[in-house]
Amino acid sequence: MRRIVLPIAVSCSILLCHLARSEPGTTNISKAAMNLPPELASLAREGKNEFDKGNYREAEKIYESVLEKAPNNLYTLSNLGVVYFRAQKLPRAEAMLKKAIAIAPEDGFSHCTLGIVYYSQMRYDEAVNELTKALAINPKNAFAHQYLGIVASQKGWTEVAQKELEMATRLDPSFKAESAPTPGTGDFLTPLETQRLQVPLERK
Predict the structure, then answer these.
(1) Is the residue at 6 inside a domain?
(2) Fewest CB atoms less than 10 Å from the CB: which of 85, 168, 172, 195?
(3) pLDDT value of residue 26
């Protein structure tokens, strides 16, 4: 079976611009769920800076410190979930993102990222469920379309996979591969290769 690898790796700095808190479909989230006191906001920015440098362990410690003082803060929960994902601590990432969703069920960012976490564990049905929810919240979420296409290919849904990957490309041309992949012809990527994929990394 032929392996198809999508050449879609993008730097962390570019990805941070792709998914900010101002993304469509999340404007109805309570400001109280996002806001942090000034001293904690400053600390959270330090965590973001460490993340940008690839210092995931330092970012993890900082966000955990913020979370101790603001345990229901959506910003911190979802970003810590992403930090855990990048550190390959998938069960912890799942737990953080589920808590974020419990606090803000309409948060497309957390649904999309949780779907990617599920995909990384080959839990394809759960991935489809979360990515579909993310797209119901924000139909223009290119990341969710991209991963839904990849998961659909894994499940043998060729037409769905092609449609979702094409939609991701239309929404964000940077997703376009040099030669378009043919869904359904092989396993796109294994979980060990997820670092090469575009991932919604952090909220700004």
Answers:
(1) no
(2) 195
(3) 42
